[in-house]
Write the structure tokens for this entry.
Amino acid sequence: MSNNIVGNAYRDIIEDVINSSRIDFEDSGIDETTLRELQLLWQERLTMSGVANFPWDPEPMQEPEPGNGGAAVNYEMSSPLYAGGGVPISATPQAFSNPAMAAMRAAQHIQEFAREERVPAEIADESIKGVMKRAGLDDAGDLDGSNGGGLILPGGGRIAQVDGSSEELELTRESVDRLLKLHILRQKSGKSEPAANHSLPSNITLRRNRQSRKIELILSQVDGALDSSDDDDSDDEDDDDIANVGAGGSSAGHRKNNAGDDSDAINSDLDDPDDEINSQDDEENEDSGMIMLCLYDKVTRTKNKWKCVLKDGVVNVNGKDYLFGKGSGEYEW
Amino acid sequence: MSASNVYYELYRRSSIGVALIDSLDELIKDSKIQPQLAMKILSTFDRSISEALAEKVKSTRLSFKGHLDTYRFCDDVWTFIILDVHFKMEGNEAIVADKIKIVANNVKKPGEQ
């Protein structure tokens, strides 16, 4: 049963690759934990594929994702409180030239995160207040030269300073609250798409600072949806044409449907049969696996009888993997 | 360093190769590693799986019969699509499949005599 050897063989390959790559990781200045993470991800994916039983299956997998997610939340929670949300803002000063805008973005971002990560609303609110407080102060400091309002207390005594700042805080908080509510409403009303779009710029900034899987997921989902919608619109003539130009393989089926189409370009007679075979192959491969990767020693044919001598093969049949050192096949055409 | 050219990249399409590529993609997306490092790891994988197949499963045999649907020989690579395949594994284990695609590279690598 060559399926039984697969688990151990794959384990050996993984260990060999991981150990051999240690020096490459060191040369690139990458931490050993990342190498370990690669190994775990690799093993996990193989286990999920179910192509064989693996020696690492019984022991519980250390899932690296929750740890990272937790760290991300902590970071997110603490940074606005301590630094007044200064981290993302100062990272891209040009983008947020207006501090109030920056505060809005930060607040919006915190809320989104609170929703995604199910952080208690009070804590998120505290963070937002922190951001707003900070931005409000800065904002007022800039504007008050013309305003002459409560902040520039000419008396300037020790008490007056404290009073002034707090008074001024309440003022900005009111206006900011209004804006915040507006944003919340907007987010609630157009929950899925607009929220994701709104958050994109700040998400990207954040991703530079730390790892965020959630955001990755949002981004890749957008990609996925686009791709599939392209594929699904098979009756659309425009799509068909685009597909013909872009990737001939996937369009053969469509073209067959539109047989009356006058899209017989110069190459189409030659391309059609090949495309059809290719597209069939590729589709089936991606769907069901069912592939044998190997080396050939000899391939012979007498009339319609073929014989081949194969070596060093990996076969995926009916969802299981098999390995062979020597293989032979006979088939007639 | 000619080592990267010596081994076929063929096996990257196998389950274990795809699992590795997906894992590397994930690490690259999280900016935990650079794509260059991932390429290095992949060529290490090419070597490792080629050696493992050549050395550790040398004696394992497999034979099959079927109906040849498509054959192609291009760039020194044979591609067969075989229908109604009957596999015989070691230990007389038999497996039947509707269809299998075989991609086979030359045992003799380019430049080898």
Q: What stands out?
A: DSSP finds twelve helices and three strands in chain A.
